[in-house]
């Protein structure tokens, strides 16, 4: 299994700031916490896809690559056209992962509450999936979230899709091959887009990002 960490966004609604570099109370950027969670979940082949803010995020990744707690197979790729959408960024990352992986986990670098335990829950559900399941998506109160997982069939289909298409399009076109992991918490669906999200994160979850 391998993993993709999506970090190509511009952060427009956050004043064009790189959301993955928001820092937790321990001073470490959000993206570093995700890398450590991926390692703790047993994932070593990790591709981070960059776009906007690539130079700044790349500096942090270079530092993280030297850390013992980072994935041994950590690499990062640049999407030259990140505004083409998440499908474009995902395809850049999938092209960089080893071809022989049987499944891929995809997570977002601007999710402040995701833990290694949450990733392990997705991995456990994936291993127990029903025959014919090609995509596993966590959800909370009906809202799809991340991290999600898919197999080689989905990976192949995604690589062949047009530039504007993404995983959501595949999911809607193949509902019978999708399994849902229903959660009783919002960690899978809480991401940071605005200053209001930061305030809600602190007020509701006690997590302060700076």
TrEMBL record:
InterPro entries: MobA-like_NTP_Trfase, Nucleotide-diphossugar_trans. Keywords: Magnesium, Transferase. CDD domains: GT_2_like_f. Residues 3-176 form the MobA-like NTP transferase domain. GO terms for molecular function: nucleotidyltransferase activity. It comes from the Bacteria. The keyword Cell inner membrane does not apply. This is Nucleotidyltransferase family protein. The lineage of its organism: Bacteria, Pseudomonadati, Pseudomonadota, Betaproteobacteria, Burkholderiales.
């Amino acid at each position: 299994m391998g993993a993709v960490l999506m970090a190509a966004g511009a952060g427009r609604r956050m004043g064009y700031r790189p959301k993955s570099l928001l820092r937790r109370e321990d001073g470490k950027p959000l993206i570093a916490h995700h890398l450590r969670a991926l390692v703790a979940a047993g994932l070593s082949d990790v591709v981070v896809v960059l776009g906007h803010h690539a130079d700044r995020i790349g500096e942090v990744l270079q530092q993280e690559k030297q850390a013992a707690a980072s994935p041994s197979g950590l690499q990062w790729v640049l999407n030259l056209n990140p505004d083409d959408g998440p499908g474009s960024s995902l395809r850049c990352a999938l092209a960089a992962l080893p071809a022989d992986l049987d499944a891929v986990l995809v997570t977002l670098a601007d999710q402040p509450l995701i833990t290694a335990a949450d990733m392990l829950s997705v991995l456990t559900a994936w291993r127990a999936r029903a025959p014919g399941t090609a995509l596993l998506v966590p959800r909370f109160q009906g809202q799809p979230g991340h991290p999600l997982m898919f197999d080689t069939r989905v990976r192949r289909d995604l690589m062949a899709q047009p530039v504007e298409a993404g995983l959501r399009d595949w999911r809607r076109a193949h509902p019978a091959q999708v399994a849902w992991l229903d959660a009783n918490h919002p960690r899978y669906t809480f991401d940071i887009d605005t200053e209001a999200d930061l305030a809600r994160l602190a007020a509701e979850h006690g997590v302060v990002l700076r």
